[in-house]
Amino acid sequence: MTESKKIWMDGKLVEWGEANVHIMTHALHYGLGVFEGVRCYATEGGGGAVFRLAEHTDRLFASAHIVMMDIPFTKEQVNDATIEVLQANGLTEGYIRPIVFLGAGSMGLLPKDNPVKVAIAAWEWGAYLGEDGLKNGIRVRVSSYLRHHVNSSMTKAKVTGSYVNSILAKREAVASGYDEAIMLDTEGYVSEGSGENIFMVKDGVIKTTALTSVLKGITRDTVMTILADKGCEVREERFTRDELYTADEAFFTGTAAEITPIREVDGRVIGTGKPGPVTTGVQETFFKAVKGQERRYESWLHRF
Question: Which residue is catalytic, options 75, 112, 135, 158?
Fold first, then answer.
């Protein structure tokens, strides 16, 4: 990770190396925090633009509401702070991490008067799954770890502690020689990646998993909008791993992953083993949109 100069913490900018928390921070011990992953892109003609900032901030506040944390700032203040930290670091392109967590105070599983802390960091970060992965696709395996059940974890909230499950799945996949993991739900159907939503294409039919157990991805929604504008229908429904094996195309979507083609699953080549026309078409339009080259999607950009 490329270190930046400043981080916004609880209303003010502090030096990167001084953005510390107490060892008794409740979230460090028990994992009660929520976060977002946001990207900004350098745009055509100069300047930067945060991609779908309002939607990310809305989801941050929704996550906090689900886990019963009251954010001590307004959405407008969080949006303004995001731009402030980008400008303070001289960034027009990079990754942004807002995080809300319970600070130091009482311990145990019933926090009482612990303060709710808010921070926003931003840094340079390229392709999450590699430039080659973006261009040529990645190899993935179905994980032995399952996606959380809807009644064992709050699957519609980006809760910090919930991602231990994803870390285990990712480590398992990489240790097995793959680039990423695919997680099944508790009934055995394809759910998502360790931190990405998934799409598949078969005989012209495009599917993505329904939102039963997965996070409502903002990039997922972006891709569905782009496909609809291209005249394509996306079915939100369950599919199995063996259905995925026989897909013509498959790809991950996510703020970090952007649009990453999948060329192999569990040793089975997907389609021709190269990104297909649906994937490449969506990818091309997506990158034009985030860089301000598609006027029809200008509303997605928060320019600064």
Answer: 158
